[in-house]
Design a protein that fits this description.
About 35% of the residues lie in helices and about 25% in strands. The strands form 3 sheets. Strands 2-1-3-4-5 form a 5-stranded parallel beta sheet, with helices on both faces. α1 packs parallel to α10. The chain is globular, with a radius of gyration of 19 Å. Nicotinamide-adenine-dinucleotide binds next to α1, α9 and β12.
Length: about 270
């Protein structure tokens, strides 16, 4: 029975807690829930069949074999460090918070703990990982989002871009993943995981395009290397409880958990 602690009881954390409570109850139990808003954690605990305790971060880590972070990029590196320091495995959803924190990967190796990063809202990481066994020349992410998905981003505010005046397709940003992380922190997870799996944040290219006609968040990935060329496109439905999060991101976390808990057959790279 794997004891799982969940940090962040919003859309993804809540979705995973309910899945563990029902589908994975034979192989896992929730050791505790944690949220900066204690009431949210208590509310979620009350919806589960075996009401798990609401714990502070340190106690939650102590009580768990696997910690799942689904909280915020501002705290994901701290949760990652505190977990692996105690030799505990950790699954991180706010991947953006790990960019530039390579020492955490070294620490995990020393402590024999695992850092697990689900693919989230994109497809193509399997191919990128295979391609990276040889030379990869180019990795580009093109994200298409409706204007409301970009509202409030530091880059938009800094450049004084009036999103309401945009009538057709418009390229809003072109740069490296490292620059995108700064300008569009809400987009950071996708570009961060792509950078970590491939050629790094300074070489991974990012383009952000908007149009009032877009109905879904779309991520296109283009990879070129010794293997050839790979193109993927993901058209993401928003998660009902949090439209900023793609449904596929929560599903990728559940699929990763299933693999950890139940699968003896591993499919894909
Ligand atoms: N990897 C990906 O592709 C991907 C995709 C979507 C979302 N995400 C990331 O996953 C995280 C969770 O997404 P979500 O849709 O569930 O968000 P959400 O806003 O629905 O839920 C986040 C929860 O975490 C809590 N929280 C915030 N800061 C906290 C802190 N410092 N300590 C403890 N709890 C804290 C909030 O109170 C909230 O309940 C976000 O950081 C999001 O950016 C990653």
């Amino acid at each position: 029975m794997k004891r799982i602690g969940i940090v962040g009881c919003g859309a993804i954390g809540g979705f995973l807690a309910k899945r563990i409570d029902k589908e994975f109850r034979k192989t896992a139990r929730i050791a505790g829930l944690c949220d900066i808003d204690r009431k949210k954690a208590a509310l979620l605990a009350g919806k589960l069949s075996k009401r798990p305790p609401v714990l502070e971060l340190d106690k939650l880590i102590k009580a768990s074999d696997l910690i799942i972070e689904a909280a915020s990029g501002s705290i994901s590196a701290k949760i990652c460090k505190s977990s692996i320091e105690k030799g505990k495995d950790v699954m991180i959803m706010s991947t953006g918070g790990l960019l530039g924190k390579n020492r955490l990967f070294r620490l995990a190796r020393e402590k024999k703990a695992r850092i697990i990063l689900p693919s989230g809202a994109i497809c193509g990481l399997d191919g990128l990982k295979s391609a990276s066994m040889c030379k990869v020349k180019k990795v580009t992410l093109t994200t298409r989002k409706p204007p409301k998905g970009l509202r409030g981003a530091p880059f938009i505010l800094e450049k004084g871009i009036d999103l309401d005046s945009i009538t057709g397709e418009k390229v809003i940003f072109e740069g490296t993943a490292r620059e995108a992380v700064k300008g569009f922190p809400k987009n950071v997870n996708v570009s961060a995981i792509l950078s970590l799996a491939g050629i790094g944040a300074n070489k991974t290219g990012v383009r952000i395009i908007t149009s009032p006609e877009y109905m879904v968040n779309m991520h296109e990935i283009e990879i070129e290397g010794d293997f050839g060329r790979l193109v993927t496109r993901t058209e993401n439905m928003p998660f009902p409880e949090n439209p900023k999060t793609s449904f596929l991101a929560a599903l990728s976390a559940a699929a990763t958990l299933k693999q950890i808990l139940e699968e003896n057959l591993r499919i894909g790279t």
